[in-house]
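Hypothesis: this fold can be encoded by more than one sequence.
Test: take the C-alpha cells below, design a sequence, compare later.
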C-alpha cells in the first residue's frame, strides 16, 4: 500500500507533463505585443503534440495557414506579413488548446547585441528622455542573461512597449537607433536586446566556429575566468542567441570588442565566422552593423586598441556589413564606457537608413573616411581616402591634423611635420624621415584626432604597414 501511495502522486505528475507537452506552445519571443518584420516571411515556431496538424490565423490575412509538428513535437512556419501597421492578432488553434497573440505590430525588427556598451541603460541621456519616452510604436524584447553547454530552445523575456519604466532597463544605443528609424520611416520598430557586459566574442558563437581555425582556438584558450560571466566559447550563444535566431529581423547591431583587445589577431575571423553562422541559422543574409570600440588608456600595450580597430575594419570586406567610428565621442579616456550613446545610435541609424532602407542620405554623411592606398614621392606620402569627396576639416584649436606618424625602413615612427589636406587625399612628411615607407594615423589606444571629413565624421584609424 505504501508503494501505491507514493506512486500515485508521481503518476499524476507524469500525466500532467504529458498533457502539457501536447498543448500547442510558443517561446517567449513569439508573444503578444511583438513586432514582426514587414513585407517578409516571418518565422513562427514552437511545440505541440507529435505530428499534430493545426491552423495559424493571422488577422491581416483572409485565409489561415496550416502547419504540422514533427514526430518530436516541434513545428515552424513562415507567415507572409503585410506592410507596416497594426495592431493585429495571431491565433494558433490546436487539438487541445488555442493561443491568441494580441496587439501585434508589423514594422522593422533589429537584433542588438554585444557587451557592456550595448547593454548600458539609464545613463544621463536616457534619463533626459524618460518624461517623453512613451511610444507604443517602439517595442522592446530583452533576453535574460543565461548560459548553457548546449543550444537551448527557450530564452526568457517578454515584449513591452517603450515607456518611462521599460526604457530605464533597455540598451541606450539600441533605443536611440530605434527612435530615429521610427521617426524617419514612420513604422513600428521592434528591438531585441541580447547583450552581456564584459563578454568576449567567443561566447557569442558556437564552439564549432572557434574550433575551425588554429588562431581562434589559440585565442579562446586565453579567456580569463571571472565571476560575472561565463568563460568558454558558445556558452552565451547557446542560451541567448540560439533560442531567438530564427526570429525574422531586418538586421543586427553589434557593439563589442573590448573583451577581445588582448587577442585582437583572431577577431576578424571570429566576427565574420559569427556573422556567417547567425545568418545561416536565421535563413537570411541580413545587414550587420558594428560600432568600433572607443579609445581607452587601460589596455596593456600602447597599440592594443588600434589592432582591434584594424580587425573590425577588415570585417567590412564581408558582404552587407558597415561600421561607425566613435573616436571623437570619448569623454574620459580612463573609462571604457563613453557617455554619448545618442550619437552612436544616430550614426548607426544613418547607416541603416542609407544602406538598408535606401534613403537619400549623402554618402559622406554616414560613412567614415577610410584609407584606400598610399603613394610615395620625393620624401612625401600621399594618402588616398574614401568617403571624403568634399575634403577634410579640423575641429578644435589645432591648425594641423593630429595623430599622423611616419617611418622609414628602420620602423621608427615619428610625428609628421607637415600634413596637407586636400579633397580625398592627405600628404604627410617629416624632415626626420627623408625616405618614408609607412604612415600610421590614430594608431594607439588613446588617439583622438581632430581630423574629420567636411560632413563631420572622424577619419577611421589606420596604418599602411603590416609590421609586427
Amino acid at each position: 500500500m505504501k508503494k501505491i501511495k507514493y506512486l500515485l502522486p508521481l503518476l499524476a505528475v507524469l500525466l500532467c507533463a504529458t498533457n502539457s507537452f501536447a498543448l500547442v506552445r510558443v517561446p517567449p519571443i513569439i508573444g503578444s505585443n511583438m513586432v514582426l518584420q514587414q513585407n517578409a516571411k516571418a518565422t513562427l515556431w514552437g511545440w505541440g503534440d507529435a505530428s499534430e496538424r493545426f491552423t495559424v490565423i493571422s488577422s491581416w490575412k483572409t485565409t489561415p495557414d496550416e502547419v504540422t509538428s514533427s514526430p518530436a513535437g516541434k513545428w515552424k512556419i513562415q507567415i507572409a506579413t503585410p506592410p507596416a501597421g497594426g495592431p493585429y492578432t495571431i491565433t494558433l488553434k490546436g487539438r487541445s488548446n488555442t493561443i491568441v497573440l494580441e496587439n501585434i505590430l508589423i514594422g522593422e525588427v533589429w537584433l542588438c547585441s554585444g557587451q557592456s556598451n550595448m547593454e548600458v541603460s539609464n545613463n544621463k541621456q536616457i534619463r533626459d528622455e524618460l518624461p517623453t519616452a512613451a511610444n507604443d510604436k517602439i517595442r522592446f524584447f530583452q533576453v535574460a542573461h543565461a548560459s548553457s553547454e548546449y543550444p537551448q530552445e527557450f530564452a526568457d523575456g517578454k515584449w513591452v512597449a517603450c515607456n518611462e519604466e521599460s526604457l530605464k532597463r533597455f540598451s541606450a544605443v539600441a533605443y536611440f537607433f530605434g527612435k530615429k528609424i521610427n521617426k524617419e520611416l514612420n513604422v513600428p520598430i521592434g528591438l531585441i536586446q541580447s547583450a552581456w557586459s564584459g563578454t568576449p566574442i567567443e561566447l557569442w558563437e558556437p564552439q564549432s566556429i572557434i574550433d575551425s581555425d588554429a588562431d581562434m582556438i589559440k585565442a579562446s584558450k586565453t579567456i580569463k575566468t571571472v565571476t560575472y560571466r561565463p568563460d568558454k566559447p558558445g556558452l552565451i550563444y547557446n542560451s541567448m542567441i540560439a533560442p531567438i535566431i530564427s526570429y525574422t529581423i531586418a538586421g543586427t547591431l553589434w557593439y563589442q570588442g573590448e573583451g577581445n583587445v588582448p587577442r585582437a589577431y583572431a577577431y576578424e575571423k571570429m566576427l565574420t565566422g559569427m556573422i556567417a553562422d547567425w545568418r545561416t541559422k536565421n535563413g537570411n543574409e541580413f545587414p550587420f552593423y558594428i560600432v568600433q570600440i572607443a579609445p581607452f588608456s587601460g589596455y596593456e600595450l600602447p597599440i592594443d586598441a588600434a589592432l582591434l580597430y584594424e580587425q573590425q575594419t577588415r570585417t567590412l570586406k564581408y558582404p552587407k556589413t558597415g561600421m561607425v567610428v566613435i573616436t571623437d565621442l570619448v569623454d574620459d579616456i580612463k573609462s571604457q564606457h563613453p557617455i554619448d550613446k545618442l550619437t552612436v545610435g544616430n550614426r548607426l541609424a544613418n547607416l541603416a537608413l542609407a544602406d538598408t532602407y535606401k534613403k537619400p542620405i549623402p554618402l559622406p554623411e554616414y560613412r567614415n573616411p577610410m584609407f584606400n592606398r598610399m603613394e610615395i614621392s620625393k620624401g612625401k606620402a600621399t594618402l588616398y581616402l574614401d568617403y571624403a569627396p568634399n575634403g577634410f576639416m579640423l575641429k578644435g584649436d589645432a591648425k594641423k591634423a593630429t595623430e599622423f606618424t611616419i617611418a622609414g625602413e628602420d620602423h621608427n615612427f615619428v610625428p609628421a611635420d607637415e600634413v596637407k589636406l586636400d579633397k580625398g587625399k592627405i600628404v604627410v612628411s617629416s624632415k626626420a624621415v627623408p625616405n618614408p615607407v609607412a604612415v600610421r594615423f590614430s594608431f594607439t589606444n588613446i588617439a583622438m584626432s581632430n581630423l574629420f571629413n567636411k560632413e563631420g565624421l572622424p577619419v577611421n584609424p589606420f596604418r599602411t604597414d603590416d609590421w609586427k
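The first helix runs from residue 2 to 22. Confidence is low (pLDDT under 50) at residues 1-21.
Hypothesis status: open.
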